[in-house]
Amino acid sequence: MKNLIIILLFPSFLLAGSEKANQEKFLILKKINTPIIIDGIIDEEWNIADKADNFFQLSPYYGKQPSKETYAKVLTTEKSLYCLFVCYEDQEKIQKLSGRQDNMNGDIVSIMLDTFGDKRTAYKFAVSASGVRSDLRLLDDARNRDFSWDGIWFSASKIYDWGYVVEIEIPYKSIQYNENITEWGLDFDRWRATDSEDLYWCTYDQSERQRISKFGRLIFKDFKPTIKGLNLEFYPVAFGKAYYIGNGKYKVDPNAGIDIFYNPSPQLTLQATANPDFAQIEADPYSFNISRYEQFFNEKRPFFIQGSEIFMPSGAESNSGFYRPMDLFYSRRIGKILPNGKEVPITFGAKVFGRFNDWEYGGFVARTQSIDYTNANGEKFNEPSAIFISGRVKKQILENSSLGVLFVGKKTLSDTYGVLDIDGALRGSNWQLAYQIARSIKNDLGDFAASAGFRQFTESWGYLFRSRYVGENFDISQVGYVPWLGTFNSVIITGPIWFLKEGPVSNIFLYSGPAINYEKVDQFTDYSGVLGISVSMRNNWGFEINFNGGKAKDVGVKYNFFETSFSSWFHNPKLSGNLYSSISKTFNFARNYLSNFYEIGGSLNWNITNTLRIGSSLNSWIEGNPNGNIEDITYNARPYFSLTPINDLNITVYIDNLFVRSTDRMERIFMGGLFAYQFSPKSWIYFAVNEIHDRDNEFNKLKMKDRVSVFKIKYLYYF
């Protein structure tokens, strides 16, 4: 096995390189004294700005001349950076869908800025033709995204009979940057929805797509941003909850809190919250689990999402998902939901994150209150008060690589829990090797865990490798999510990839390779082979077929296992969706036997008008039994409608229902509604209603279990 890994990976490092690209792509930043009015009208001041034109088509026809002309310009005042996009288009082809921040469709333009010159991270500011905004952070040389970042910036769009114009203003005090460098990395992007054209100012290889390390340059010739000020964001928050307590009565709980963001320098941010409302407004989707391990749920609470990138281990890739580092800091352990449905109260939280030269750092602290609860058997327990802390340091090495240390801990009066981690990533333009080594802490006990992942795609071949080891005493269940104690697994996948220049097919990846999985509880090493094909079409749909089969052992039962899966996806301005299905022979830990297991599901979303969107997901899980018959089928549907009459004002209603074939009845209905209005930058009004109906077996009918109404208003004072 070791020799095979070396054979596959060694040529990749020899072939990899950090080629200099787009060196001819640069703009000189010109300074003006009068601020530009952000209204989508091209003022005379723009005439002195350098022009970025001759955009490059990345897809669907790599390297071909774009169908329509685009150019962008940038200017600056002492306080703000300004950007202009001029996009030529037939007016009837411009997709003008309404939306809310970070949730947009249609024709879109964006500017990307590497403000530290580190060739790894960048800001991205995007605006649609209808004026919807989105902002995020590009991480790990654009291999990953952080959508939680929200800045204070301004934009406007205006549609003409020849196309449309977008203007953007980015105040320097809204972003972090290195005051000592003389140029920033720069790129522009345009998405033409009608033809699925993705156009960039810079040129990228088809196999790797966008890379921050290959950005063009924004050169500061007679000006460098050095804006100073208080840079304080102050958010008074008022919120209230109404709980249904039965017999037509409600318990009303009004409250208030404070959120503070403070940027004492362009490279440092402090965030604190007092008496916070940490409840998530939207409920988690239903999850069906037949494995022996705990289910993972994504974080949805804004305080824990914002600025979380610094606490993420290196190497996650949002575009493939093949390798995922271990989640050593699982923030849903803080203020967790107890067996009786109550949440552990959080009284205080604070974060700090920033940069100094090639170093990034972050810190986190939160305090939870003691709370009594009763489990499903009626036994009484106490969740003690606790302090959660985390510290992170990361350094840029070898130009585009990183090395970091992470600590996460939890302290109660009687116990100490935590984990210490060293992680990093070595990168070339078309490859990445990520690694992670960790030590758990549980009072005087501890154990080790490690993971690694490699990915490279050339113009003709793909290489993927991942491996994870978790010691049997590596228990970080109080602070992280690593439930696979006493396991080791490894997968190697490789195969040819074809990028087609003409025709409906964009690329084909045919892959195969071996996999092993050892679980100490079974004293056995499962082994299997993987074979699959992934096909992407030029009109934004594709499919993947995968087969995995071999020998396995679970709960003393040895067997031949297999899994065959199919997935497909599509997206266009009016419709988007996905379809998946799988059949497997596996051990059902929920029923404690070996049997066949089937999954069939998908989702469909339809933009009926520019303001109204409807859709639904439908999933089914079919459990077999040892006799080869169907034991049960569980169905879960989640229809919804979403109305956005104007940008940043949205009303969403959804119904999540659960039907079980064996009982031939609906077992649960979860209804939710959300009104959200961003009336000013980073200022929101929320009103949400959630209602749960569960099956009452005594009366054989659905009975309302809980109803909660939440009102929240958050207003930004910006100094």
Based on helices, strands and strand pairing, what is the structural class? mainly beta
Low-confidence stretches: 1-19
Q: Would you tell me the overall average pLDDT?
A: 89
Total of DSSP H or I helical runs spanning 4+ residues = 2
Number of strands: 43
- Helix fraction, binned, reads under 10%
Topology:
Elements: H1 2-15, E1 26-28, E2 30-31, E3 51-52, E4 56-59, E5 70-76, E6 80-88, E7 108-114, E8 122-128, E9 133-139, E10 144-146, E11 154-160, E12 163-171, E13 183-192, E14 197-200, E15 216-219, E16 232-246, E17 249-265, E18 268-274, H2 302-305, E19 346-356, E20 359-368, E21 371-374, E22 380-383, E23 386-397, E24 401-411, E25 416-427, E26 431-442, E27 448-457, E28 461-470, E29 487-499, E30 505-519, E31 524-537, E32 541-554, E33 557-571, E34 575-588, E35 593-607, E36 612-624, E37 630-637, E38 640-646, E39 649-660, E40 665-680, E41 683-696, E42 701-714, E43 717-718
Parallel strand pairs: 1-15, 2-5
Antiparallel strand pairs: 3-5, 4-14, 5-6, 6-12, 7-8, 7-13, 8-9, 9-10, 11-12, 13-14, 13-15, 16-17, 16-42, 16-43, 17-18, 18-19, 19-20, 20-23, 21-22, 23-24, 24-25, 25-26, 26-27, 27-28, 28-29, 29-30, 30-31, 31-32, 32-33, 33-34, 34-35, 35-36, 36-37, 36-38, 37-39, 38-39, 39-40, 40-41, 41-42
Question: What distinguishing features does this structure have?
Answer:
nine-stranded mixed sheet, 26-stranded antiparallel sheet, 719 residues, mainly beta, single chain, 56% strand, globular, 2 helices, disordered N terminus
